[in-house]
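Lab channel / #folding
Pinned by the channel admin:
"Please post every new chain as: sequence first, then the C-alpha cells as a reply. Keep commentary short and put observations after the output so the thread stays searchable."

First post following the new format, from NK:
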Amino acid sequence: MNKKVLAVVLSSLVAGTAQAATIYKNDNGDNIKLYGGAEVGGTFVSDTDKTPFGTDTTYVDQSFATIGLKGQTGGFYGKFEVDAERQDWTRDNNLRLVIDKLMVGFNFNEHHALEFGRTDTAYDKVDSFGDLSNELSTGISEAGDQDNTIRYIGDFGKIKLSVSHSLEGWDGETTKGNQPVQYSYVTDSLYGAVTNGYIGYYGETFTVILAGETGDETKIYSAHAEAKFGDFTLGGLVFDQTKNFNGGTDTNTFAANIGGKYALNEKTNLIATFNYEDIEGAEDQNIFGVFGADYMYAKNIKLAAEVAAGDVMDNGESGALFFAKAFYWF
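Reply from TO:
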C-alpha cells in the first residue's frame, strides 16, 4: 500500500514526458524548470481500534506536497526537491519539510546516465508497476530515497534497466522492532548500505519487469507486468520480501496482486484488484479486494477513490478501508 501516486507522476514530468514550468531556457538547450504538486485526502478505516489515533477517529490524513527545481547544462543536470509530509501517524502528526532530493547527474549519451546524491534508488521507479490501484493494494517496501546514492540508468529502446547502490546513511543503526530506527536528523535514508535495480522489456502493448534489492536489513525479489487490450489493461506483480530490523529475526512476506483497469471514457477508469499476502508467523494468509475509480478532471488534476475489503486490518483481521484523494501537479 501507500503508492504515492504524485511521486510517480512527477517522475515522468521531470523526465520530460510532461510539462513543468520553464523559468529559464537558453538557445543551446540549457534550462531550469520548476515542478511540484499536492495530494489532499486520506483513508477512512472501518474499525476505529485499528487507526493510529485509536477510537477517536476513523480518518487518517495522508496529504502530501512537493516542489522542486531541475536544471540542465550540457550533459550535466541537477535536482533539488522539498516534500511536505506527515511526520508520524500520531495525534501530533504535523506536516514537516524534508529535503527529498539533492542530486547531480550526467547524460553520457541518449542511452546512459549516472546520478549521485540524495535521490531515488533504482527500484523506487518501478516498485508499484503492475499494481493498477491508486493506493490500497498490497505493495513492496523497498529502500526508496537514500542519501549517498549512485544510480546508473540505461535505455536501449524497448529494454530499460537501472541499478543503484546507497552507501551507509546517517540512519544506519536499525535495531528496534521491524522498522528502522529514526533519529533527530530528518531523512528517508533509513536502510543504510543497500543495492537494488531492475531490468524490463517495454513493448507497445506489453511490459514485463524483474527487480530486486539486497542489503544488511532487506532482501526483495519481484516481477511486474502490464498488458493492454484496447480500453482494458491487465496488470499484476508478485514479490518475496524479507526484512530484518529487529536484531536477528527475519520477517518474510510473499505477496501478489493482479487486477484490471477499464477506460470507461477518455477521463474515467474503473479499477479492480485481487490481493494475497502470506506473512511468516501469521496464522492465516491475507486475502482482500480493491475496487475503485479515478477521473482526470484535467491533464494535471486527478480525483481517485477506492475501497479495500477483506483481510486489511492489523494482523490480517477483516474489515474495510476507503481511500479518497485529489492530485494536482505542474
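NK: The longest strand covers residues 31-45.
TO: also worth noting, The chain is about 5% helix and 55% strand.
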